[in-house]
Amino acid sequence: MVELEEGIGFEQYLNSSKEEYKQEQLQIYKQVNLADNTKEIISKISKKINIIIFAEIYCPDCRILLPYLEKMRELNDNISIYIFPRKGYEAVMEEYIEVARIPTILRFDSSKQLLGQFVEFPQDFKTMLKGLNEEEKKALIENYRCGEYNRLIEQEILEEIILR
């Protein structure tokens, strides 16, 4: 298990990177608009939720995912996010999810039992990738990175992380 205090917030995450990556991340952040029902659900959360994220700002999939978590955090002070780099934390990821992939989101209860996880892509998107050849996978992932599947991201974070 990681110590939450070792994690950084979204602003620190942005400032710890190359300017190019920071600007790309900010551009994506500006484009993310949570659905009204998501905003309503998030605003009503009354218990403390600590979310651990393993991410690197150079990773395009991390850049897509993190704005959703930050927007949710901004809506409710009961939600805290703690961002950790992949490097140096591979063993922690492997302990809980058996792989060290980014982005990875983990949520634990107060007794440090894993409640929810999100690894790399939403589950529905992973299902879409099954059975495709490499060229088809690349095309679908490119569409994902261009925002075509953003609602899947939002929905899975809400259902598998926030509401657990």
UniProtKB/TrEMBL annotation:
SUPFAM superfamilies: Thioredoxin-like. It comes from the Bacteria. This is Thioredoxin.
